[in-house]
Every structure is written in C-alpha cells, then in structure tokens.
Amino acid sequence: MNAMNPVCPAPYTGSDRVLLGHGAGGRLTAELLDSLVLPAYDGQSGPLEDAALLPGLPELVVSTDSFVVSPLFFPGGDIGSLAVHGTVNDLAMRGAEPVALSVALIVEEGLPLDELRAVLTSLGRAAREAGVPVITGDTKVVGRGAADKVFINTTGIGRRIPGLSPSAAGARPGDALLLSGPVGLHGTTVLSTREGLGFEADIASDSQPLHRLVRALAPLGADLHALRDPTRGGLASALNEIARDSRVPVEFAEDAVPVPQPVASACELLGLDPLVVANEGCLVAFVAPARADEALAALRSLPEGAAAVRIGEVPRTGEPGRVTVRTLVGARRVVDLPLGELLPRIC
C-alpha cells in the first residue's frame, strides 16, 4: 500500500494450475475466461451474458450449464431440479422463455439406482412445472472416483419475449436497482447440509424458475435494461459484472438488502459475507427510474417476487465499473468481485 494508491494487494500471487476459485464466478473466473477460454474460442470482446443470441436468429437464445452440487439433495431442492432452474433462469436473464432443454449425465460407477432415479424424477418434475420439455440428452458412466456420484449438464433454448432485450451492458445512469427476494439462502443451505452445521433446519434453498417473473416485467419493454440472477459469487459478482459491462457505477444500501436471520447468523459464524453467497431463485433488475414502482408491483404480483425491494441505483456520476455499498453506519465501501472459492460445489 502507498499514499498514491491506497489499495492493499490481494492475497493471491497466481498459479499455473486450475484452482477451485476458477469456477467460483469471481475474479479468478474472469481471469480464466479472459486469458484462456475466450482466446481459445476466438471469443469476441464485449459483455459476458448469461445466455447468447443465436446467430441469424436473434429471437432465439441458448444457454448451457453444468451442475456439480454436493450433496445431491438439500432442503429446498436437489441437483436435478437445480439443473432445470439454473438453465431456465439463464435464458430468462436475456428476456427469454424456455422452449426446450437437453440433459447430459456423467454418472459414477456404484451410484445406487434409487439415488439416480430420485434425481431424474425431480429433474423431470421441475421441467414440467417450468413448462419446458426435455427433448434430447446423453448418459456416460465413469469409473469409481472419476466423478462424485453424478454431474449434470443442461442446455436450454429460449424464445425472447417480444419487446424485451435486457443485457449485462444495458444499465444506464439513473436506473433503479431492484432485487426480487432475499439473498444467501442457497449457498448457506447447501454448505450447512454438507458439513452438518444444523442451519438447514431453519432455512432452505431458494431454487426456483424465474421466467414468469421476467414475463411479468414484459410491459416495461425497453425500460427494462439489465437482468442478472446472482448465483456463483452472489450479489457482489452480479452487480460487478453489470457495472463492468455497462461501464457505469452502481450503488446500493446495505440495509435495503434482505438477508434472512438464519443466513446472517450462519455467515457471521463462518466468516462469510452474505453478498458473495450464491442464490438460485432471485434476480436483480436495472430499470428506468420512472418505471421502478411499476416494476416492483409486477415482481410482487407473483410468489417468486413477493419480497421484491429497491436496493439502489446507478449514480449519474462516479467511477464506471465500480460497485459501492452504503453501510449501516453511513459510510461507503467498495464491493469487489470475490477472489476465490468460499463455498465450493454449490451449483
């Protein structure tokens, strides 16, 4: 640290190996994408969206995701339903409703068939409840120890809702920042179940599909500028990604973010920040300020968004790409991308 640049160095000096943190959705993930993944694919510079528009067919959206949750079953969900919800939600963040899913399984030799049956039954139920058919897939079996029970890859195709074109690069100065529900439930539930901490007796994952919430926001049209579901890396990562890709500052109030008391207690005990804990059933929305009340009413009209709140805004002045929080004591602090993996194997 020095007087000209009062920033403490991050406790990370680089590695020539893949780390768990490279899959955490934070700073290491961004570095891996920028330095290795995107160059290998001749990736274009620009916003990194939750789902991509199909070339030549801009009304269609595609997203793919892999799920490696441990344990497979937890209060509020399991790896099967989570795979559906996560993929449907990535499509929804581009303003699309799901049309079809593919499902690929990597199964470890020795997994009891009853466990696999329970996972697939839950996956099928979640797909039917979301109104999206599973139309194709693949199954591979690997030797004992080559995987952890079962990994699931899902690809979703969606059709954009007419009039909606939200983008991670779409936030604008003056926008209102809305959050559709409480944060921290999924990550703390999975961690507590895995480690036997006991918090799962009071909380459950928020895993749920969000495309109906986005449909409710359709009357906003072009005034709905950006959407993101704060999964890996939590609210901190989601807001930093939009601030970066939109080249705007973002500011929110700490006391406006709903954190359930059991989540707050678990985070305090474990030394975690609820802002970086993963969620699987809420979204952040950047909307034109004149439509903020209408957007909140639309979110609150559905069970998935009953606890929606306004938590902040896009200041008209400030450093582009910087996210700040107004703390409970009235100060402001910068909210960075999380560096490493705090809660591995949660999605």
Description of the structure:
This protein has 347 residues and is an alpha+beta fold. Helix content is 27%, strand content 23%. The protein has helices at 27-40, 79-92, 113-130, 185-195, 211-216, 234-246, 261-270, 292-300; strands at residues 52-54, 57-67, 73-74, 77-78, 96-108, 134-142, 150-160, 176-179, 224-228, 250-253, 284-287, 309-313, 323-326, 332-334. The protein has a 7-stranded mixed sheet, sandwiched between helices. Helix 2 packs parallel to helix 3 (113-130). The protein is globular.
Topology:
Blueprint: H1 27-40, E1 52-54, E2 57-67, E3 73-74, E4 77-78, H2 79-92, E5 96-108, H3 113-130, E6 134-142, E7 150-160, E8 176-179, H4 185-195, H5 211-216, E9 224-228, H6 234-246, E10 250-253, H7 261-270, E11 284-287, H8 292-300, E12 309-313, E13 323-326, E14 332-334
Parallel strand pairs: 5-6, 10-13
Antiparallel strand pairs: 1-2, 2-7, 3-4, 5-7, 8-11, 8-12, 9-11, 10-12, 13-14
Helix pairs in contact: 2-3
